[in-house]
Amino acid sequence: MATGKERTSSASFSSTSDEIDDIFIACCLPSGCTVQSPVNLHQCVKLVSSSDQCTCSLFMHHSCFEIFEEQVLQHLKLSGRARSWSEKQRRQNIWSKRGYDLAFKACLCKCKKGYLKKDVDQVDDFDEAVPVMKTKKKKKKKKK
After folding, report:
1. Among candidate residues 35, 57, 64, the one with its CA nearest the CA of residue 109
2. Which letter does DSSP use for residue 95 in this model?
3. 69: Cα separation from own chain's centroid
4. Distances from the Cα of 70 to the Cαs of 65, 76, 94, 119, 126, in angstroms?
5. Other CB atoms within 10 A of residue 19 CB
6. Digits of tens for pLDDT over the chain (144 positions)?
7. Strand order in the sheet with 59-61
8. Is 26 exposed, middle or buried (0-12, 13-18, 19+ CB in 10 A)?
């Protein structure tokens, strides 16, 4: 079972756009990158590792991530409780605790020290990584 400790990549996103474009990051697809080019931080999928000693980049090209996700879905399809799930349920649950607890064995990292999981809190555009503030609506008082 995956541990609760998950490490995120050490890449800093407080840099300017020009500085981010100069960083070359390798894809962390465990079976080997299919694109064979550095990952563009503006167009990638961010992952987290269950190990603090992970040495991989924790970023994947979108096309590599689709391959990775299909491999994990295939593992889910063959595993115990998830066998009865529909394809839609598998896709919905794959990165939630419910599905990931069944599929984490198929997510072994390249470094073999931890398991990869999609960072569901990823912001799509790193330049605009600003926290969203939720505003509370004021309740109207009923007039008597």
Report:
1. 57
2. T
3. 10
4. 8, 10, 10, 17, 26
5. 10
6. 444 444 444 444 444 444 545 567 889 999 888 888 888 888 889 999 999 998 888 999 999 999 999 999 999 988 888 888 999 999 999 999 989 999 999 999 988 989 999 988 876 544 444 344 445 556 667 776
7. 59-61, 44-49, 116-118
8. middle
